[in-house]
Amino acid sequence: xxxxxxxxxxxxxxxxxxxxxxxxxxxxxxxxxxxxxxxxxxxxxxxxxxxxxxxxxxxxxxxxxxxxxxxxxxxxxxxxxxxxxxxxxxxxxxxxxxxxxxxxxxxxxxxxxxxxxxxxxxxxxxxxxxxxxxxxxxxxxxxxxxxxxxxxxxxxxxxxxxxxxxxxxxxxxxxxxxxxxxxxxxxxxxxxxxxxxxxxxxxxxxxxxxxxxxxxxxxxxxxxxxxxxxxxxxxxxxxxxxxxxxxxxxxxxxxxxxxxxxxxxxxxxxxxxxxxxxxxxxxxxxxxxxxxxxxxxxxxxxxxxxxxxxxxxxxxxxxxxxxxxxxxxxxxxxxxxxxxxxxxxxx
Amino acid sequence: xxxxxxxxxxxxxxxxxxxxxxxxxxxxxxxxxxxxxxxxxxxxxxxxxxxxxxxxxxxxxxxxxxxxxxxxxxxxxxxxxxxxxxxxxxxxxxxxxxxxxxxxxxxxxxxxxxxxxx
Lengths: 347, 118
Fold this sequence. Notes:
The complex is a heterodimer of chains A (about 350) and B (about 120). Chain A is α+β, with helices and mostly antiparallel strands and about 350 residues long. Chain A contains ten helices and eleven strands. Chain B is about 60% helix and about 10% strand. A two-stranded antiparallel ribbon of chain B has the order 2-3. In chain B, helix 1 crosses helix 4. Chains A and B meet through strand 3 and strand 4 of A and strand 1 and helix 2 of B. Chain B: It comes from Streptomyces termitum.
């Protein structure tokens, strides 16, 4: 508590001030740097991971007299086990992995990504639970078989939970810059646009190193799968396909806001609605120093589609976060975005 | 590339869109070989009909400034001459507008262009 405020203020005409200790530390500045994530969103993000962490230990405790010791916990392509773990150790591991992932998701959560949390936890929880189910009533762990169809079951469960997560995100109010009362600063770049004039800005941008890296990864995965265990191919595909999709993107600024999407697929995309935007400008981005690499990067107070170091369009959002995308001619895009956001706020 | 259209203007919307591409090519904000936004996407951005955008793209194709290919969409013609060609087309359109103001017929204008070539 601020010492100046420690005296009892019982005067009835004082405006109701926020009483949380943190609130006094933030001055009444036009731009808030505090990262505001609704508590409800954090709970909804953590919830599926807690459930996923509980599944396997519960199953192991429930079936303790019907499971072999050790359990078969890792399987080859043919469904024959090639890895074994004690029940207690597996229960601890199966709880720790979703909890650790859940902690990371809860820190960096976002309303539009809530479905991802439910998808991830659904996949992991189902896969781990199915492993225990495979071990049920087996004489020894070596007799256990795990069909590949379990992957499809896990994907199905993940998809259903992703839909549920997407539905639940409606319980969280969207961030709205107009609701926070933040206006675009008068010094920000503007475009001279007539009252009835419609405008849009569109630009494709590509990263050659990222394309090369993704293709290299894919080739390496194929090679590794031919010589070694097949999951290496899955891993390579899981890294290379998003990498390829991110290597060529189209950035669009129009009456809907800012949209960044791959030129290969229409979804997923990054979209910042006009109503969430509190300002846009151009700045130089250093991929490694600021974002620790290339691609879609998430940091504590900013996220970005970073394809190179250099000119980038930077957008401040009503929740205090910044979104950047490296794109040429970003100055025009920033000016148009400020103009359109201001026009949108006036309506 | 910046696109701006004014529905209140007497210039048809498709022509306004074509003029944006010509201008972007001339001032270097669009490069030879660059892909233009898909017609449907641009129509949604500007709040105009898809056919309006396609009319603009068709005009640019007739002027030899872009190539339209099924599946690949609209691409600015490759080669270093594209910006100069865009400038030439823009100036020609200006001249045509001036000729119309002077009351010249189509034949008279074409004849005038032919004499200036000789």
